[in-house]
Amino acid sequence: MNQFKYAFIVLLCIIGLNTSAQVVLNLNSSKNEFTVLEKSPYKLKAKTSLDKVNTMNVTTSRGNFIELGLKGYSKIYDAGKPQLPVMSKLIEIPYGSEVRVKIISYNEQEINFADIGITDKIIPAQPSVSKSSILL
């Protein structure tokens, strides 16, 4: 019976540490989505919205950092710069075409991390490692 109590207490501590290390930043949008509004041979119109950003505390040999995560997004691999979530979509463009990007409108929401108790910097992106360079 003592082993069960001990395992239960350890489990509660792990759950407590895990939840205290994560903060969910709720944004103004009601859902996280990427939608293609219009698609033709001459035009692609899309809309994206974010409902929340997940944060997680990360401890490295260089100190404490915060990592940002968004469902459906990947990481940026620009070594040394903040590791921000990015969305990548491939589109097919005919050879010889002229591409023009026009942002029609956007809404932004600024969040001061210090105001919500986050004092660490965003973790820097690490350089991409080639699979062929990994020694087993």
Q: What do these coordinates show?
A:
- It is built from one helix and eight strands, in the order H-E-E-E-E-E-E-E-E.
- The protein has 136 residues and is α+β, with helices and mostly antiparallel strands.
- A hairpin with a 2-residue loop joins strand 4 and strand 5 (63-69).
- The model is unreliable at 10-20 (pLDDT under 50).
Shape: flat
User: What is the CA-based Rg, rounded?
Assistant: 21 Å
Weakly predicted, low-confidence segments:
10-20
Output the structural class.
alpha+beta
Q: Which whole number gives the mean pLDDT?
A: 81
Helix content: 10-25%
H-E order = HEEEEEEEE
Tally of DSSP β-strands: 8
Give the neighbour order of strands across the main sheet. 1-4-5-8
Distance between the termini: 44 Å
Largest sheet: 4 strands, mixed
Structure annotation, total helices: 1
What multimeric state do the chains show? single chain
Strand content: 25-35%
What's this model, at a glance?
This protein has 136 residues and is an alpha+beta fold. The protein contains one helix and eight strands; from the N terminus they run H-E-E-E-E-E-E-E-E.
Brief descriptors of the model:
1 helix, 136 residues, 8 strands, 29% strand, alpha+beta
Blueprint of the fold:
Layout lengths: L1 H19 L1 E5 L6 E7 L4 E6 L2 E9 L2 E7 L4 E2 L9 E2 L34 E2 L14
Parallel strand pairs: 5-8
Antiparallel strand pairs: 1-4, 2-3, 4-5, 6-7
